[in-house]
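Same chain as my last thread, 423 residues:
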Amino acid sequence: MAAIEPKTHDLSHLSPVWGRAVPASLIASHGEGPWLYTVDGRKLLDFTCGIGVTNTGHAHPRVVAAVQAQAAKILHAQVNVVYSEPLIALSHELAALLPAHLDSYFFSNSGAEITEAAVKLAKQASKRPNVIVFSGSFHGRTHLAMSMTTSKTIYRAGYQPMVPGIYVAPYPYAYRYGWDEDATTDYCLRELKHLLKAQTAPDETAAVIIEPVLGEGGYVPAPARFLEGVVDLCREHGILFIADEVQSGFGRTGKLFAVEHYGIEPDIVCMAKGIASGFPFAALGTRRELSDRWPTGSHGGTYGGNAIGCAAALATIEVLTAPGFLDAVTARGDQLMAGVRELQRHHDGIAQVRGLGLMVGTEFADAARVAAVQKHCLEEGRLILMNAGTYGRTLRWMPPLVVTEQEVDLALAAFGAALKVTA
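reply #2:
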């Protein structure tokens, strides 16, 4: 049979279910650092980095070399059958990076899978049925993860009934409530306590799962006092505290994990996205005492702990933990937030600028302005941005962590020009 010539630019066989942040005509040929190159010759500054995935930039040489070397050895060592050397090495590397009490690791393919794994572990370990999530949350699109996601109805509409036993508490999103941070924190902690009295009793609540910084919900960092209060409630009632670090982990906030900003110790940490620089990979970290309560064979997955993914993760960690790397992330985040706030002083419409490290949200008064700014940035400024939030009013800035001072300035210039044109 003659070989079929692929129609590489014909999109007719792709499902339309994927939502798009940019026109379908943008087809990438390759990437380098924070830059994407398209098949029609455009060079674009990518401040989405695969929705917070390519933290080391596109095609980082160290990650590429690790993937190539591992591919020449073994593509996939199925963990139920054999262990690979990178799998074992990664478990030790993560144990050294995360708090010492998190000494047991499970691997999967995506953020949704790993949040489901975390909840399954919590239910098995606690012998309790219910889970508390927070408004604005995004934990994934598989059925349980979707049921825990409250950032937009599009993720849930048409898929009823949801998984039972999931209860929603308010997230301390001060701007949305119109209060200051302290008043918002007090209210949200009161409502969480009320939830434990009114809807799910502590002794039937397995876990609380929360994003330390809301991702899809609008890039909103939780106040420290709120997270401390949640942890205190969990400890008081024997409820497991799960930190969903899928989007905020691996250097995104200027520290390897966002919980480091708060000095709190989760019982379970969910990791994905930036862990392997673009290779589909996810990890769960927990205490051995908890994972020992997870019956052998009750959870797993064919591709979890894939050898190439482990190699990519090890190389990614090597890049992120190099001396001075995270300091540079913090510096670029400070530069970005200062630049956006300076533009805010001269342009109407920007309601709030917030974030940690290079996880920055710019909230506008209306979604139409956000869409117009995005469009101008792409078409005229060669800058790719995405929105976030229930109402689509937040532009989220998530450049690769290797972005330079000059590249942040280019992005700010494109953003400033868009603000002028769309005023």
